Amino acid sequence: MNKSPTQGESPAERIDARIKELSDWRGQTLAHVRALIKQADPEVVEEWKWNVPVWSHDGILCTGESYKSAVKLTFAKGASLKDPKKLFNSSLEGNVRRAIDFHEGDEINEEALKALIRAAIALNKSKAG
What is the mean pLDDT of the segment spanning 27-41? Predict the structure, then answer.
């Protein structure tokens, strides 16, 4: 039986539960992306908002949503980030957010994703100061 995240759990436990609940390529992708975020920023704060995983550092960096055919990593201030490797492939028309949709079988450009995470942190820090 799948265990949905519940109120009494920590954000990390809720994210663990979501990954386990997905139990297919989406859970594996979400776990992989989560690991890359933590590699890019060992000080990242994991949160649970809007019923999805949220990663923050001096403000929200990104959220990790799961859909039937995609895992979506939405960057809160993605429109303000340089994306030289063209990772953003969703929500491109917005003025603020940008997203990356990962589909089954997609290769993740790990170094480019970590660079994007670091750029989001730098942007948050510049706005926080």
Answer: 98
CA dihedral 72, 77, 82, 88 (to 10 degrees): 20
Residue 4 lies inside a defined structural domain of this protein? no
**Other C-beta atoms lying within 10 Å of the C-beta of residue 67:** 10
Tokens of 116: 């994007």
| Rounded-to-integer distance, Cα 80 and Cα 119, Å | 10
Residue 93's CATH number: 3.90.1150.200
pTM for the model: 0.91
Q: How confident is the model at residue 102 (pLDDT cuts 50, 70, 90)?
A: very high
Contact criterion met (CB below 8 Å) for 98 and 78: yes
Domain presence at residue 3: no
Least confident of 4-8, 26-30, 65-69, 78-82: 4-8
